[in-house]
Backbone:
């Protein structure tokens, strides 16, 4: 009750995990922890959907609809008649937003879910993570 | 400072492999070294004033460092390379934490935005990192192929892509720059170095900007309410805004429930009680007017505080997009109904007063 943060879009395919440890290294909330043979999804409800784990997973074992949890940005977008996920993130776009204006197209809300679940060619997979 | 752009890359083939090149082959030519702007670890009084101005939102987008490569101390071909955002607070935190370390700092162009926010929107990202590595000729300046990024840059950077495109390995350092000396000493970040906390100090640091955002409309509301309903109503408006922008961040972990909106409603409700009690006991007013005035406070103050509390989500270190979305759909209608009802009641009271009914 009164907790909107119990569910999120994080998906983890343990079978694809090569236990490189990158997800544990980049997650600021301990959502993933190192395991014996694969990363352990230890605290899924702590995920803030920043997308760091998915972006840095070399085998696309993680999927998340990343974005910024900023009500100001979402409401502002909605008030301007745009979709809440239209790419007008709270760190850019309108002057006076939390991080001011920006000349580049914001990408935080443009990030599409990665190729989670899709097989990638072996040559695309780097298996020597720089941890 | 001058940015060393468009350097010619070294043709030293043994360097390109990043392997066993000799120092003589890949040592930095003197002219190249001096072409790299020098940074220091000293935080001057002017730097501190700049930090204060940034914290209170003065010249919000003007706290920038020229993007490019900087040298700290006397780095050589084996010195570590760190990446940072071109936001003065980010850059200053890094260079001050690296006091006594001979190294390079690669400053990415994040439009004057801090690392985590910039990573979230991709400006502290793979493309910019690759671009800076190439445009500064980093491969010809250092012998190794390793670049240390702040961990909170990870939402914008794909290490496999950086590796493919530049042959530089991305190493994610700790969350906080202050942990860098220990990280460099041990070569690893402890689990606590990898975690983001949101302590009172960090929450309070955000309050000036939060308040500045709404200061003008709050002041306008206070002035209008003073002339329409007296100092009590004016004070109530200020209290609602201060509760949402200062009290809420300070008390965030201690207010019951998880959702920001309900926390805000609770806090606003508590703040509203003394005002409601005061308005309910105004002498010489009929009972219905006193009740209506109290209701105005109980409806408007919590809704304003809750809305401001919900808007604090973007400043926190843990609010997810999905959760915030749910909150918006769950609670914004409630806030709107409460605020609307409060405004209608206030208008009715104002009209009654205008026509001498009360």
Residues:
């Amino acid at each position: 009750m009164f907790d909107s943060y119990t569910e999120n879009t994080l998906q983890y395919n343990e079978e694809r995990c090569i236990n490189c440890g990158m997800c544990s290294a980049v997650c600021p909330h301990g959502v993933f922890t190192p395991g014996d043979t694969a990363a352990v999804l230890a605290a899924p409800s702590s995920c803030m959907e920043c997308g760091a784990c998915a972006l840095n997973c070399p085998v696309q074992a993680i999927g998340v609809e990343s974005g910024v949890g900023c009500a100001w940005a979402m409401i502002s977008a909605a008030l301007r008649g745009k979709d809440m996920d239209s790419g007008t993130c709270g760190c850019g776009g309108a002057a006076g937003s939390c991080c001011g204006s920006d000349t580049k197209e914001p990408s935080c809300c443009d990030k599409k879910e990665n190729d989670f679940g899709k097989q990638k060619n072996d040559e695309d997979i780097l298996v020597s993570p720089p941890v | 400072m001058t940015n060393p752009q468009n350097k010619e890359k070294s043709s030293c083939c043994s360097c390109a492999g990043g392997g066993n090149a000799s120092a003589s082959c890949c040592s930095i030519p003197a002219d190249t070294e001096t072409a790299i702007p020098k940074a220091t670890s000293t935080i001057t009084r002017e730097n501190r004033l700049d930090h204060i101005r940034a914290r209170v939102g003065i010249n919000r987008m003007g706290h920038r460092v020229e993007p490019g490569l900087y040298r700290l101390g006397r780095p050589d071909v084996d010195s570590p390379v760190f990446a940072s955002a071109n936001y003065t607070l980010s850059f200053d935190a890094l260079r001050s934490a690296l006091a006594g370390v001979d190294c390079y700092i690669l400053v990415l162009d994040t439009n004057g935005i801090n690392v985590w926010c910039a990573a979230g929107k991709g400006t502290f990202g793979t493309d910019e990192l690759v671009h800076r590595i190439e445009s500064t000729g980093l491969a010809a300046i250092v012998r190794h192929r390793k670049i240390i990024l702040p961990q909170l840059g990870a939402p914008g950077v794909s290490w496999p892509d950086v590796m493919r495109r530049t042959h530089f390995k991305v190493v994610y350092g700790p969350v906080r720059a202050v942990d860098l000396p220990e990280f460099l000493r041990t070569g690893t970040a402890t689990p606590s170095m990898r975690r983001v906390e949101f302590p009172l100090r960090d929450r309070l640091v955000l309050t000036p900007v939060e308040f500045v955002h709404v200061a003008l409309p709050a002041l306008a509301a206070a002035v209008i309410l003073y002339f329409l309903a007296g100092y009590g109503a004016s004070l109530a408006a200020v209290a609602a805004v201060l509760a949402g922008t200062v009290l809420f961040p300070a008390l965030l972990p201690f207010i019951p429930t998880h959702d920001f909106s309900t926390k805000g409603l609770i806090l606003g409700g508590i703040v509203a009680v003394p005002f409601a009690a005061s308005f309910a006991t105004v002498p010489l007013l009929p009972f219905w007017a006193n009740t209506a005035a109290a209701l105005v406070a109980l409806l408007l103050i919590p809704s304003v505080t809750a809305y401001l509390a919900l808007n604090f989500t973007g400043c926190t270190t843990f609010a997810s997009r999905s959760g915030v979305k749910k909150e918006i759909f769950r609670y914004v209608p409630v806030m709107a109904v409460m605020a609307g009802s409060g405004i209608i009641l206030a208008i009715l009271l104002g009209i009654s007063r205008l026509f001498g009914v009360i």
Observations:
- The helical segments of chain A are 22-26, 52-56, 71-79.
- Chain A touches chain B through 63 residues (CB under 8 Å).
- Residues 71-79 of chain A form the longest helix (9 residues).
- Chain A has a mean pLDDT of 75.
